Every structure is written in C-alpha cells, then in structure tokens.
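Here is one such protein, fold included:

. . .
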Amino acid sequence: MVVAVQQFRRMRGGAQSHLMLDSDKQLWVVKFQNNPQHNRVLANEFLATRIAAAVGLTVPESAVVEVSEWLIGQTPEMEMDLGLTRVRCMAGRQFGSRFVGGLMPGKVMDFLPDQQLAEVNNLAEFAGILALDKWTGNIDGRQAVFSRRTRERRYNATFIDHGHCFHAGDWTLVDGPLHGVYPRNTVYQEVTGWESFEPWLTNIETMEPWAVRQIAAEIPKEWYSGDSTELDSLVEKLLKRRGRIRDLIVQFGRSDRAPFPKWMRSERRLQK
C-alpha cells in the first residue's frame, strides 16, 4: 500500500488522473474510483499492467494508493468534472502508476519525430505490447511515453494507460483490426515474422493460469463493486482467448494500415 501525502496537478486524459507524491517522495499518476470513465478502469489498469510486467514488457510500477479524506479536503483542485456537475475525488484505495521520470527527469516526451522514434532502444517491444493489447481486447489506441537520461541520446519507451483493456467498464472482449495499435507504423517497420514478437508472445501463451488468477485476486474489491463472479468470468475468458492472439495480429497486418512491410508484402501481392 502506497500512501499519498500531496497532490501536484491534474493530468490530461479522460480518467482525470492526478499526479501525487507519496510518503517516500515518489510520484504516482493516480486514477480515482469515481473517475468519469468507470470504476472498473482501475481494475483493468491493475490486471493488464501487472500481466504486462510479468511477460517482460516495459510498464511503470503499479500500486494501490491510499488517498485520505483529509488530503482531498485540503486540496481544492481534487475534483472530478462530470459535465453538468463537479464532485470531490473519492477517498480510499485508488490505482497508482509510477510517474515516468520521477522528480528529476532527464527528458520525457509523449511524441517523437519519426527518425528518433525509429531509434528508440526498445522499439521491438511495440510488437510485444501489440500482442498483449490484442489479448486483452484494448479498444483504445496504444499509448507510450519516451524517456532518456540527461547524457543519453536515445529514448526508451514505457507503455502506459491500460484502462480500456477488456472494453473499459463493460468487461467484454470486442475485437477490431485497429484496436490497441500504436498510431504510427514506424514502430512496426522492423517486424519480419513471428520471431519479432518474441519472447513476449510465447510468455503470454505459456503464462500459468494461476499467475493470472493471483494478479486478479489482489485487485481491491471496490474497483469492481465486489462482484467476484464477474471478475472470475473475465479471467477465464482471458485465459481461453490466448489461442486467438496470432489471428488478431494477422488481421491487423492485413488491414489497410499495412503495418508490417517486411513481413506481409509478399502475401498481399498474392491476394491481389
């Protein structure tokens, strides 16, 4: 459990997260239970982020963050804009994602020009996170931030925002060729075949069911209204659909985006 002691600022995005400092002087991007999207996006973040870390992808550290009534009462900015009304952020246990860069970042960007994007140190991981997004039914575009230390030239990608996995608050698994993909093909240009998705794809396909169930068991019940039957059902559907991941990747590859020029070009010629 992480304890928040100070709010820094409101973050961009539909969930209206807040950047907060904990008692150990670490920064966290905190999503609240009463965010405008759905309380289940906290459960989605926890489940998908922990699974991503388990299969070896670069994601921020995640934690349950306790935010007190006192802190909310002392911080006027801690509100949720619900359109016609504004309400105070809910106290209690919230989802926290470690802020990339921390208190003294070297350089953190959410956009890079194509040349710098192509030189990202862990560019190959975009294939791995694609496999995870297809598995978890992420209906949002893939988001990443890029960071480097002051004396480094190349950036590293960290994959953030998994709230719209499992179709956000619906907990259904709806597939579309462009669901969960990064908006620019540059990150996929070096994909040459299934070997480009390793080791992450095999790690997903061979992940022990008990490991996924254990992560789900650690989600605070208030993030899904205490309905453990629905959570169990989601986990079982997730485990069963691992056999579909490769088909979903191929569907993206055959889409009008043509994201894999070094892999599927010859196949498209034959189809024509």
User: Anything to note?
Assistant: The chain is about 30% helix and 20% strand. The longest strand covers residues 2-10.
